Amino acid sequence: MTVTTDSVSAALEQTPTHERVDSHLHPEGSFDVDAHEVPTGREEIWRFTPLKRLKGLQADAEFMPSKTSCTWNTPAGARIEGVSGDEARGLRGLSGLVPNTRWAARVLAEVPDSLLIDLPADTELTEPIVVDLDGTDASVTEAGHVAMRFGAHSRAIVVLNHTGSSTVAAVVEIAVGDGADVTVVSIQDWADDAVHLSHHQARVGRDASYKHAAISFGGNVVRMDANVSYDGPGGSAELLGLYFADAGQHIEHRIFADHTAPQTKSHAVYKGALQGEKAHTVWVGNVLIRKVAEGIETYEENRNLVLTDGCQADSIPNLEIETGEIAGAGHASTTARFDDEHLFYLQSRGISEQEAQRLVVHGFFNDLIRKVGVPSIEDRLLTTVEAELAKNVLRDPGSLAAFAQEA
After folding, report:
1. Nearest Cα to 218, choosing from 240, 239, 243, 241?
2. How far apart are CA 325 and CA 262, in angstroms?
3. Tell me: the pLDDT tens digits for 311-350?
4. Distance (Å, rounded) from C-alpha 102 to C-alpha 30?
5. Which of 76, 98, 124, 295 has the highest CB neighbour count under 10 A?
């Protein structure tokens, strides 16, 4: 299946010209697959990503019949179903997305179906929508498109739960209506052989609130872009991330807050921990404040905790400011080894070394887990953090203190 010239033209006409970004971090987009070259790894947006481990998803790998099951609950008032044909094609670009990568353009052009999550105006859900995606074969390269549409003054939480073995490229589009309050949580808890390449794009309406949480634990390679733009003044976006990389894992998160309207807000907080040989995390943040975006507020921060030798954490915050009439803008980034003084303080009060390690790492993540604001998954996240610690650090109670002393 291919997108027709007419449908591409219609999508471009619906996309305000100010959303087309001239930036080394965000090349100009196009629905035309041939307009995008196959990345070599020398491009700014690909220089950290291990392209050989993506199994061709970033280039021209065949999108095979899916081996990933997709199931969901349907709370009263919501429409959730797979759609195809003209309805699926009409959903491409609903978030304002014009793809700036070859793989995303291919997903929109070649994937025949979409999973639609549709909430009418003034509808408030009392329980989260949970979509479970469970892969069974990482040797199959596949792709998917998810479209979320939330009407004016609606209220909902959506959880995308990724497990099992899969090699998948996914585009997720979110349209948040005026005055709506929406939370989207994406959990990457894949098996060790999984490859996950994804782009999440949201368009936030006037006086609407949008929260996006990216939580990555499993997988061989996980790369996720989480982008947001604004349809009118008063919109607010909170971009959260939590990740834990083990030996050999590559986990990469990129965010882009494009302030396309005045009096808008964005706040990004990503926290990650690394342990084991060749564990690698990447966080690239970017906020673009356009000339029209007067009176905006934005802040982005990334904190990394390196638990053992042999890890690498890359953290790059960026601000692009085209107007001086703003309420506030800033960023912060830290990558540090464990502070042995924290351990000493706790141990001096009778807490064992192993328990002290656990408490400090949990304290590093706990405030962020609470910010996600989904009680049904908080316990799961805390349990997963502890399971990650048990793989390496807590298995050898003396290793972390020795590591901290060497620092």
Report:
1. 243
2. 10
3. 999 999 999 998 888 899 999 999 987 667 766 767 787 7
4. 9
5. 98
Residue 192, both tokens: 């060790």
Spans of the chain, pLDDT less than 70? 1-24, 338-339, 342-343, 345, 392-407
Measured CA to CA, the distance from residue 357 to residue 359 in angstroms comes to: 6
Q: Do residues 275 and 247 lie in contact, with contact meaning Cβ atoms separated by under 8 Å?
A: yes
Kindly provide the b/e burial profile for residues 191-209, where b requires at least 16 CB atoms within 10 angstroms of the residue's own CB.
bebbbbbbbbbbbbbbbbb
Say what angle helices 397-406 and 340-347 make with each other, to 10 degrees. 130
Q: In three state form, how does the secondary structure of 5-67 look?
A: HHHHHHHHHHCCHHHCCCECCECCCCCCHHHCCCCCCCCCCCCCCCHHHHCCCCCCCCCCCCC
Characterize the bridge pairing of strands 68-72 and 79-84: unpaired
C-alpha closest to that of 271 among 298, 243, 239: 243
Token code pair at residue 383: 């349990």
Predicted structure pTM score: 0.89
- Strand-pairing partners, residue 243, are 216, 272
**Tens digit of pLDDT for each residue in 209-259?**
999 999 999 999 999 999 999 999 999 999 999 999 999 999 999 999 999
pLDDT of residue 16: 46
Q: Give me the amino acid identity at 199.
A: H
Residues in contact with 250: Cβ distance below 8 Å, sequence separation at least 6, in sequence order: 49, 50, 53, 220, 221, 222, 223, 280, 281, 282
